[in-house]
Design a protein that fits this description.
This protein is α/β, with parallel strands linked by helices. Helices cover 55% and strands 6% of the residues. It folds into two domains: 1-43; 48-320, 3-Layer(aba) Sandwich (Rossmann fold), CATH 3.40.50.300. The protein is built from 14 helices and four strands. Helix 3 crosses helix 12 (245-254) and helix 11 crosses helix 12 (245-254). It is globular and about 50 Å long.
Length: 326
């Protein structure tokens, strides 16, 4: 290779690295700016502060949405962390990266351009920035993996997330019961802003949007539990990353329940913050990876309460395969 060809190649490598660095710094700068704004606005009324913070968080998410290769959409506590770990291991195996690298938007893509930037979202702030309160049109043109789970199991798992892991400000800006509220599991799952009613509405909103968005793959948590390798392979194929069957199986084994619990106890993943880390190692209910049980909600309620929840879940669109309509 001649000197000019080498110079030209090095220039494009430098240019690409510079663009990625600027984009990354932009993400961090937006987060830092949000914290500064909220600090300066401490004197504002609570409702005004909530509106400002949700708009700022929505802007941060929208900038990532613009740059991502595909979107992983879910409601909280639907198995996203487990899927993130499986994807991370599949990608790191493909690229020869350390197993301790946890996928966080474009961090793996910075190390290997063949890997995707994956935007993880619940779509709970984007609407505040885009103004699309019910429409999902800001996702048009993006491949979307829609991860769903039985709303009854989701709501129970969210109760423990709310009780032991969720920060007070997150509870406030997302309309969860206030920090320190004296409510039990049953009260929580019936809450219109946090429990089964809101989750059912969320899923039904996505069912209505799928025909318009078109490029959507529905993934059920229950199917991941029964056939994790098949589901992971389907996701990788849908999102455009070629990974061998052996690498898929190794990723599944790596993210097995007992190993996930062990990694959480040991804070195995570097730079993951509280994402895969126990809030209190002496309290099993405070772990991110708690029970991973299908139908576990039945352990907390009477037969009559379970029948009431069944009637609520029957309102779900049958496309998801839950409730009596399925």
């Amino acid at each position: 290779m001649g000197i000019y060809a080498r110079m030209r190649r090095n220039f494009f490598i430098y240019q690409g690295c510079t663009r990625r660095w600027l984009a990354q710094m932009g993400d961090k700068a937006r987060v830092a700016w949000r914290h500064i704004i909220m600090l300066l606005g401490f004197w504002l009324p609570a409702t005004r502060r909530k509106k400002i913070e949700r708009w700022l968080r929505g802007r941060e998410e929208y900038k990532k949405l613009e740059r991502c290769d595909w979107v992983l959409m879910s409601w909280g506590k639907s198995g996203r962390t487990w899927l993130r770990v499986m994807l991370s291991r599949a990608y790191t195996l493909k690229a020869g990266l350390p197993a301790s690298e946890l996928l966080d938007f474009d961090n793996l893509k910075h190390q290997d351009a063949s890997l995707p930037a994956v935007f993880f979202t619940h779509n709970n702030y984007l609407k505040d920035y885009t103004g699309n309160q019910t429409s999902k049109r800001h996702f048009k043109g993006k491949r979307i993996v829609l991860l769903v789970r039985d709303p009854r199991d989701v709501a129970v798992s969210q109760f423990f997330q709310w009780q032991f892991r969720m920060r007070p400000n997150k509870k406030f800006i997302n309309d969860y019961p206030p920090h320190g509220a004296d409510i039990d599991t049953w009260d929580f799952v019936l809450d219109k802003d946090a429990g089964v009613p809101r989750i059912v509405d969320y899923f039904n909103g996505w069912a209505q949007a799928i025909p318009e968005l078109k490029d959507v793959l529905i993934v059920r948590y229950e199917d991941m539990r029964s056939e994790p390798a098949k589901v992971l392979a389907d996701i990788l194929s849908f999102t455009g990353t070629e990974v061998s069957a052996e690498q898929v199986q190794e990723a599944v084994d790596f993210a097995a329940y007992e190993n996930m619990k062990k990694m959480e106890q040991e804070s195995f993943f570097k730079g993951s913050g509280a994402r895969v880390k126990a809030a209190d190692k002496s309290n099993p209910q405070s772990f991110k990876v708690r029970k991973a049980k299908v139908g576990g909600y039945r352990d907390y309620f009477t037969d009559e309460q379970c029948e009431q929840l069944e009637r609520m879940v029957a309102e779900l669109d049958p496309v998801f395969g839950y409730g009596s309509q399925a």
